[in-house]
Fold this sequence. Notes:
By secondary structure, the protein is of the alpha+beta class. It has two domains: 167 residues, no CATH class; 99 residues, no CATH class. The chain has 16 helices and twelve strands. The strands form three sheets. The protein has a five-stranded antiparallel sheet with strand order 1-3-2-4-5.
Amino acid sequence: xxxxxxxxxxxxxxxxxxxxxxxxxxxxxxxxxxxxxxxxxxxxxxxxxxxxxxxxxxxxxxxxxxxxxxxxxxxxxxxxxxxxxxxxxxxxxxxxxxxxxxxxxxxxxxxxxxxxxxxxxxxxxxxxxxxxxxxxxxxxxxxxxxxxxxxxxxxxxxxxxxxxxxxxxxxxxxxxxxxxxxxxxxxxxxxxxxxxxxxxxxxxxxxxxxxxxxxxxxxxxxxxxxxxxxxxxxxxxxxxxxxxxxxxxxxxxxxxxxxxxxxxxxxxxxxxxxxxxxxxxxxxxxxxxxxxxxxxxxxxxxxxxxxxxxxxxxxxxxxxxxxxxxxxxxxxxxxxxxxxxxxxxxxxxxxxxxxxxxxxxxxxxxxxxxxx
Length: 372
């Protein structure tokens, strides 16, 4: 039986639709966060722009209150990176993704933790973190009293990988800051009962709902899990099959939206490390092929991007004065952009400024890419 080939443009439109970026959704914030299987938020405020760009009536103050009331939380999950998730998803996801944490710890700090019983270390760390939220550095120093011959940083990271440690507020609240201090998810939610891990099949189905059509390697790259081929094979009869232009097998949910490639895609502003950019191993469906990867994803250097006609084609940054009486949106196109596309970006950019710096004087500047 022949398998239909999806063009890059068709994959782009399908992904934008699943990511709520083709048109804003009327979902509630919690519904959206769960639909997206969390939001990558290495930078604490990232969830605000991510949700503003996706939802019709997103209220940052309301989300911040709900975040403070522990309806949402930031914790290390997919790829051992920080994600914002709902309280309901937090522990099931964390339990399923524990192997990702284990592999990350072994690869980065395994040699520096030799001779330590990690279960014992975790229980020591649990006591410290539940008595008072701790930075990883402070937690490492406290653990070093029991492990004086080991590196403080390695001890702190070992605690993070072997416990479900969440970042406590005020970090992550709207226009507030604070040190990255941690306690256990169980303590934060006041739940001493064991929570079972999410089933891997459920994770794959939810991934496809938010990121499909996608390959096995896409799902593994997004989650950090290995061995998902077997999970996809178990689900094969429930899925539909396509292939990319390069011949890669793609899986999808039968009733999931797959808009035509001629559907218009409005300009959108994305935060650093947005889900849509790192949700697949092959990023051609979202990143303009003329834009070098390092222009929009440079290790630990935050780069906020914007899309034009569905593809990432530039970077942006908002600058404010100390009193936040003026906000300037700097736009850096990385490929040629038409006059009509600039007008679309300027209109959306004006709304972004009003969201980020309400009531201030606003300005928008087009800048040249300094690195050519």
